[in-house]
Amino acid sequence: MMTCRQHTTFVLEFTVQIVMSQSTTFTTSRYCLARAIVALPLALLLLVLPLNFYAQSVARTLPRGLDQLTEEADVIVHGFITSTKVEPHPQLRNLRTVVVTISVKDTYKGARQKSLTFRQYVWNFDPRHATSEYGKGQEMVLLLGPVSEYGLTSPVGLEQGRFRVSLDKKGQAVAVNGRGNQGLFNSVEDRARAKGLQLSAHTLAAIKRRDAAPLSLADLEDAIRTFARNR
User: Fold this and answer.
1) Residue 55: pLDDT above 50?
2) Using an 8 Å Cβ cutoff, are 117 and 139 in contact?
């Protein structure tokens, strides 16, 4: 069972991460300020809300551009889900998690490996929702954030950093994230220009399309590699 102290520490750190995710810059002073701002109201909130409900209520993040998602991710891989299992956290026993293993076909950022296993907090009360997000055999591109002290990680921007890969009517591999690619390229060109970053013709074409249609896997790969190379 999670002790009161563990409960409070986990939710405090989790909430601070959400608060910091709303900022485009990270500094030690910002982190300390975020902890101070969060601590008092959180102490009151924990008296009336269970952990699962609270975690879901703060799990809303601002829209991210693909360049921002790439920059924030520690690991970016493309592959096929081989197993998904919902189970309690090994130390925090009343914390429900999903353990996902992906057979890695390609690595766009981070150390290369043939297989990757990660543990993610389950946001939804229904465990079937967690397993459906990572269906066995599903081809995916995952942009995973840093692993916390509790061994937890998740796609950056939550569903924004989780892309399902499928074939369109023409047999072309396309990728769609959990928000239907909505806002994926908002202001990306402006930020790239400010950094002096040269974008490929394919990426520029995707940016100028300005809709939330499926993105070809080749274009997604090209854009991620460009942003990862120039972070």
Assistant:
1) no
2) no
